[in-house]
């Protein structure tokens, strides 16, 4: 299906928001305003954006420790995200979660997850709800190449097939789990071969190309919404930075690092729409400026915001106790 | 004597034991680091740099980078242990026992008993715990109470560099499965550590300070805090004993009871939610074995019954503070 101008602008705005957000996270982290550690999504913007593009707030996603991009693509507000990442009052989770635990149930965002392989079983359950309630909606589990080797992920894949739930397993293969390469850690010939062996259709796409990801996701969505069970997508992505902000990355050679940067999903999107005369460069630049201004304001406000009230420490352990 | 960090002390213990005994192997996520990459393989040495330098020295057969598959990591280490190796498996954060607990408590810990004494499982699980790094609810727990209650496991909580080295060497040479719970708050702590290898026996408490007014029992990262509290109390003329059990299983009950005989007052500092904690465990020991010696209710300084919060002010309030320890001691006087 052809995307219209508004669609294209929406896609670009999402990707740019992720880019600007993560660049700001990198900077704030260096400034010491972000406690703990931060895993950024730089280089992978087209993947999360393409996957979430045709999802509604009623479709649900489970994310990973590298979840900021997924949150933004699923509609979480960057203002609340900055507050959360800085551990401030008014954060999306009241400052109690932090970077690795951003969640927004109203947006169908079931949580970033600091346990590798934590999300796939949860997404099976969300898909079960969708199936039993006959909503016609789906659940998506994002996992990395590293998480593809976790027992929980493999169990979830089998169970999703057995229960025939409307679910999409998205494997964002950025070549590394922490400092270990996927080529070493994934024993199967490929992630799609492995998914297919579980009994679900699987496709591998260029995760740096928004259009390829979005088109593949539409096929996956059609399949899942038609009641045909789960589907798997592998998006091949570039990880611009290290595992976390500040990782010196001695385990990656200089050529590889340069190649990762050369495959910039935002630049590729820009040249594609410009070459096809779908959007003017000026329009794209306008979005850039708009997005950067919003990110600047959100980050600045979060820096100034107060810490959560101490009384919240013991709140919300239970609904009622 | 050389002054080295807690991190380096652990590294030295691993290096010396690997050099001494070929059956000692390391396995875990990025214990070498960089396997399959285009740069320097083995350049990482663990997320905290604890195993740095071991891959270049001992190679990929003995410093094994694994996939992110904790059940298989721990289970394979248990299997290698029961068949003759002495694996030191790294569970990067103790929080991750959630995805491998079966292999720890139903498998490794039970082999010997279930098999009528026929199995020997010299497995060490090196892991790290504790709050204070702003790492959030799934990377900041201690979980030693869960591990301590498992029969067949030994559980070690080193509180300083000297103990870290001696206890790890003991753990590697021990024929039973041992969880070696490092404190991430202590990796940069410096202390005197002998260059040569030495063992510290399990189940032998360390009395860091002797005082007759009260006994503070503290575990892991809470030991330095208890010492700070003792300093403050000394300024007010209150003299306390600070006792570090060093291992939670076995627990040196005798040392605790002996000290209680002298002081009659007990304060337990445990970085853990209160229910079923070591604080509750040691308090129960005192009440059931030394009721007559007690001059005051046992003080329990623990975390609240909550997950670990992310926001810095909340996390600081979560961890037992020096102030709270001082106050708890004063409450018993
Ligand atoms: C159960 C568990 N094991 C290990 C870790 C430590 N860890 C955090 S992220 C990560 C790598 C994940 O790699 P991948 O799934 O490829 O995601 P990426 O970081 O590349 O996005 C590891 C090992 C963890 N958080 N949880
Ligand atoms: Mg990866």
From TrEMBL, chain A:
Q: Which UniProt key words apply to this protein?
A: Oxidoreductase, Thiamine pyrophosphate
Q: Which residues form the Dehydrogenase E1 component domain?
A: 13-309
Query: Is the keyword Metal-binding in the record?
Result: no
Write down the superkingdom of origin: Bacteria
Q: Name one Pfam family in it.
A: E1_dh
Catalytic activity entry: N(6)-[(R)-lipoyl]-L-lysyl-[protein] + pyruvate + H(+) = N(6)-[(R)-S(8)-acetyldihydrolipoyl]-L-lysyl-[protein] + CO2
GO MF annotations for this entry? pyruvate dehydrogenase (acetyl-transferring) activity
Where along the sequence do coiled-coil regions lie?
none
Mind telling me what this protein is named? ABC transporter substrate-binding protein
Function of the molecule: The pyruvate dehydrogenase complex catalyzes the overall conversion of pyruvate to acetyl-CoA and CO(2). It contains multiple copies of three enzymatic components: pyruvate dehydrogenase (E1), dihydrolipoamide acetyltransferase (E2) and lipoamide dehydrogenase (E3).
Cofactor(s) needed, names only, are: thiamine diphosphate
GO terms in the biological process aspect are:
pyruvate decarboxylation to acetyl-CoA
TrEMBL record, chain B:
Instruction: Enumerate the SUPFAM superfamilies for this protein.
Output: Thiamin diphosphate-binding fold (THDP-binding), TK C-terminal domain-like
The UniProt keywords, alphabetically, are: Oxidoreductase, Pyruvate
- Residues annotated as domain Transketolase-like pyrimidine-binding: 4-189
Instruction: Show the GO MF annotations.
Output: oxidoreductase activity
Q: Please give the CDD domains that the UniProt record associates with this protein.
A: TPP_PYR_E1-PDHc-beta_like
One Pfam family of this chain: Transket_pyr
Q: Which InterPro entries match?
A: THDP-binding, Transketo_C/PFOR_II, Transketolase-like_Pyr-bd, Transketolase_C
State the protein's name: Pyruvate dehydrogenase subunit beta
Organism of this sequence? Seohaeicola zhoushanensis
Which gene is transcribed and translated to give this protein?
A: acoB2
């Amino acid at each position: 299906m052809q995307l219209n101008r508004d669609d294209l602008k929406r896609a670009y705005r999402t990707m740019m928001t992720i880019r600007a957000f993560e660049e700001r996270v990198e900077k704030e982290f260096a400034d010491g305003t972000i406690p703990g550690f931060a895993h950024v999504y730089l280089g992978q913007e087209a993947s999360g954006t393409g996957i979430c593009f045709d999802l509604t707030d009623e479709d649900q996603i489970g994310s990973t420790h590298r979840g900021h991009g997924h949150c933004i693509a699923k509609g979480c507000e960057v203002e609340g995200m900055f507050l959360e990442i800085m551990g401030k009052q008014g954060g999306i989770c009241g400052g109690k979660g932090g970077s690795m635990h951003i969640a927004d149930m109203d947006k169908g965002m079931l949580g970033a997850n600091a346990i590798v392989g934590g999300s796939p079983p949860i997404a099976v359950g969300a898909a079960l709800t969708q199936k039993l309630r006959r909503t016609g909606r789906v659940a998506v589990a994002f996992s990395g190449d590293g998480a593809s080797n976790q027992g929980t992920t493999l169990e979830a894949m089998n169970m999703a097939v057995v229960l025939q739930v409307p679910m999409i397993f998205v494997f964002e293969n950025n070549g590394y789990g922490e400092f270990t390469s996927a080529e070493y850690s994934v024993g199967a010939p490929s992630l799609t071969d492995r998914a297919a062996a579980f009994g679900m259709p699987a496709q591998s796409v260029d995760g740096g190309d928004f259009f390829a990801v979005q088109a593949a996701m539409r096929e996956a969505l059609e399949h899942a919404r038609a009641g045909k069970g789960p589907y798997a997508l592998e998006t091949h992505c570039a990880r611009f930075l290290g595992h976390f902000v500040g990782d010196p990355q001695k385990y990656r050679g200089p050529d590889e690092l340069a190649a990762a940067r050369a495959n910039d999903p935002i630049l590729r999107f820009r040249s594609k729409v410009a070459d096809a005369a779908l959007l003017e460069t000026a329009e794209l630049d306008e979005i850039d400026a708009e997005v950067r201004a919003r990110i600047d304001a959100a980050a600045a406000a979060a820096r100034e915001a107060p810490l959560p009230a101490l009384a919240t420490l013991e709140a919300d352990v239970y609904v009622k106790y | 004597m050389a002054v080295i960090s807690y991190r380096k002390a652990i590294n030295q213990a691993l290096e010396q034991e690997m050099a001494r005994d070929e059956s000692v192997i390391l396995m875990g996520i990025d214990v070498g680091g960089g396997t399959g990459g285009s740069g320097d393989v083995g350049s990482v040495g663990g997320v905290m740099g604890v195993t740095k330098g071991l891959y270049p020295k001992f190679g990929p057969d003995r410093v094994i980078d694994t996939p992110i598959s904790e059940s298989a990591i721990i289970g394979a280490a248990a299997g290698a242990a029961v068949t003759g190796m002495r694996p030191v498996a790294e569970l990067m954060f103790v929080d991750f026992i959630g995805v491998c607990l079966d292999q720890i408590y139903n498998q490794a810990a039970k082999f010997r008993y279930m098999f009528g004494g026929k199995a020997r499982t010299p497995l060490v699980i090196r892991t790290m715990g504790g709050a204070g790094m702003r790492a959030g609810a799934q990377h900041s727990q201690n979980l030693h109470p869960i591990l301590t209650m498992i029969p067949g496991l030994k559980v070690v909580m080193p509180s300083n560099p000297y103990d870290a080295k001696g206890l790890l060497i003991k753990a590697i040479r021990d024929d039973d499965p041992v969880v070696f719970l490092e404190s991430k708050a202590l990796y940069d702590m410096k202390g005197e550590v002998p260059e040569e290898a030495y063992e510290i026996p399990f189940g032998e408490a360390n009395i860091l300070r002797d005082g007759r007014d009260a006994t503070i029992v503290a575990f892991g990262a809470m030991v330095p805090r208890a010492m700070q509290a003792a300093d403050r109390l000394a300024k007010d003329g209150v003299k306390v004993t600070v006792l570090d059990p060093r291992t939670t299983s076995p627990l040196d009950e005798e040392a605790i009871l002996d000290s209680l005989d002298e002081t009659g007052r007990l304060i337990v500092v445990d970085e853990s939610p209160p229910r079923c904690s070591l604080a509750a465990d040691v308090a129960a020991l005192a009440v059931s074995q030394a009721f007559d010696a007690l001059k005051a209710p046992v003080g329990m300084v623990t975390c609240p019954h909550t997950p670990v919060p992310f926001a810095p002010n909340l996390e600081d309030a979560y961890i037992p503070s020096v102030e709270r320890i001082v106050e708890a001691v004063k409450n018993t006087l």
